Amino acid sequence: MAVVVRMLLGRILALIPLLLGVILFVFVIMRFSPVDPALAAFDGANATAEQLARFRAENGLNDPLLLRYVHFVWHLVQGDFGTSVITKQSVGATIATALPLTVQLTVLGLAIAIVISLVLGVTSALFRDRWPDQLIRIVTLAGVAAPAFWVALLLVQWLAVGQGIFPTSGYVSMNDSFGGWLNSMTLPAVSLALPVAAQLTRIIRTSMVEELDKDYVRTARGGGLPPVVVVGRNVLRNALVNPLTVLGLRVGYLLGGAVVIETMFALPGMGQNMIQAVLDGDVSKVQGFVITIAVGFVLVNLIVDVLYLIASPRLRSHS
């Protein structure tokens, strides 16, 4: 346990400069935006040069880039993402409204991907080089090549338009109806999950095959232990350590894919709001959304690192 705690503290300390670097990268990139916040604030109202100059001075747009970055980080630490130049509303309040839906979509997609990949990956490894393995490998190869938006179009055409099982778009809050929420979120979540499930299936299959070829598995089987006990208690637990290392990257894929999927299904989450902010030229909103998603990606990878440290056989042997 002490080894895990030391490594965890090291990960957290390394996270601080990483987060500052991510924020700096997004902050600098947004400065190259062709959109002038001063012009966007007046929304084509033919503002005079004096009005534009006053707006830039009041909002610190004339300050050096480094000073603006320090001020921005200081406000971020206090939970202040700035104010939208278009709607005049707090960006933080908009994020607080949109983020829960994106988290729900990502978590549901991740859960579906994990269940599918575990079933297919374990089955493929146990039936190595036989027809179930060959079939699963062909299916996952197609899944890896299929982008989420293309999968979404197929599912909408088949299950929404053709069968009428799910709605083509719209969102029902979980507080209003859990059944309605699940119905509105299933197609978007499955669209996100299938490409990720295909990637994880191949990784789990490879890890399981390597684990099944080890000496302790042959010894356990020779000792008369049932295959279910050998696979479930030992092989699966050890084989899942390696897939954990790539799980964080797959969550990042889900967060990125949610931007497109939310727009396709008219879900009022981070993605749809960010696309609308881009169309409106609302730099403050875009900056806030991108930073939130980037920080979320970094934090998820920290959580995955912690799970990996806990699950690692080498560290378990030292605890």
How are the secondary structure elements laid out?
Blueprint: H1 2-31, H2 37-42, H3 49-58, H4 65-77, H5 91-126, H6 131-145, H7 148-162, H8 178-212, H9 215-222, H10 227-239, H11 241-264, H12 270-280, H13 283-311, H14 313-318
Structural classification = mainly alpha
SSE pattern = HHHHHHHHHHHHHH
Distance between the termini: 5 Å
Oligomer: single chain
Textual characterization of the structure:
- The chain has helices spanning 2-31, 37-42, 49-58, 65-77, 91-126, 131-145, 148-162, 178-212, 215-222, 227-239, 241-264, 270-280, 283-311, 313-318.
- The protein is an all-alpha fold and 319 residues long.
- The chain is globular and about 85 Å long.
- It starts with a helix and ends with a helix.
